[in-house]
Amino acid sequence: MTAHPAPTADSPLLKTEVADGIATLTLARPQSRNSLSEAMMAALTGALADIAGNTAVRAVVLAAEGPVFSAGHDLKELQGHRDDADRGRAYFEDVLKRCSTLMTALVRLPQPVIAAVEGMATAAGCQLVASCDLAVAGAQARFCTPGVNIGLFCHTPMVALSRNVSRKHAMEMLLLGAWVEAEDALRMGLVNRVVEKGSAVAAATALAHRIAEKSQVPVKLGKAAFHAQIEMGLDEAYAYASRVMTENMLARDAEEGMSAVLAKRAPSWEDR
Fold it and tell me: Could you tell me which Gene3D superfamilies the record lists for this protein (predicted)?
């Protein structure tokens, strides 16, 4: 088993930068294909927890170093527990629980998250992209849920994937385990736009800045409501959305925004 150098203060697993209201999280273990090892998942989950309570952060960009955005779970870690007394059952359950916690943290984060994908995003790495609110892909980015090719259906990536693309597109990816090119990912709805190779981070950051210019009241209410209502039946969803929109209308910034429209002036946001 090949050992990868342990992360240090000078070479962290995850790099975090905050500037102009945008937090950029960069997976920084290209030598391990930015796999979602236990340590990487812990680093990402911790960073998201810190960002959630930081009102200075208005949007998040999730990027990666190297030619692979993320190769998904660290197979060496998983295989290393095959000799456990339970053949790895307890470990597998724990790892998948940690992964689910990370993915739901992205969905439940108050701030919108934009994936900036260059290179390959496979298995749980593809799940990571699908769990973000928006995604920008470099022209040579590729996506895959290849578990079926090694006897392991991508069950947990399926959850995020099936909530982003149509059922038949999701099933095609899951059953074939074949590569999906950037333009096809755009057509399927897995990503929002495709840009020149090497410019995904810049394009994602530009989107983040556009979001950051808005009042954070509707952005945060809207993100939470979107993910809540999409799991509901039609009548329940309309009732829920009406309640949330009423609260939004009572916010100071909604009153200011409507007044600004009527007065034909630019609004002044206070994020309340």
Answer: 2-enoyl-CoA Hydratase, Chain A, domain 1 (3.90.226.10), Lyase 2-enoyl-coa Hydratase, Chain A, domain 2 (1.10.12.10)
pLDDT tens digits, one per residue of 215-270:
999 999 999 999 999 999 999 999 999 999 999 999 999 999 999 999 999 999 99
The token pair at 220 is: 């945060």
Residues 93 and 191 in one domain: yes
Q: Pick from 128, 236, 144, 122: which is nearest to 188 by CA?
A: 144
Question: How many residues belong to the chain?
Answer: 272
Residue 263's Cβ-side half-sphere holds a number of Cα atoms within 13 Å equal to: 10
**Quick one: which of 133, 8, 154, 136 has its CA closest to 72?**
154
What are the φ/ψ torsions at residue 80 (nearest 5 degrees)?
A: -65, -10
State the residue range of the domain holding 240: 216-263
Query: What pTM, to 2 d.p., does this model score?
Result: 0.93
Cα 167 to Cα 7: distance, rounded to the nearest angstrom = 39
Angle between helices 216-229 and 89-108 (to 10 degrees): 130
Report yes or no: 163 and 188 within 8 Å, Cβ to Cβ.
Answer: no
Q: Please check whether residue 6 lies inside any domain of the structure.
A: no
Cβ within 8 Å of residue 192, ≥6 positions away: 134, 135, 136, 186, 207
Domain count, the chain: 2
Are residue 113 and residue 222 in the same domain, yes or no?
no
The CB density around residue 248, as the number of other CB atoms within 10 Å, is: 16
Q: For the beta carbon of residue 67, count every other beta carbon within 10 angstroms.
A: 12
Query: Distance (Å, rounded) from C-alpha 192 to C-alpha 246?
Result: 29
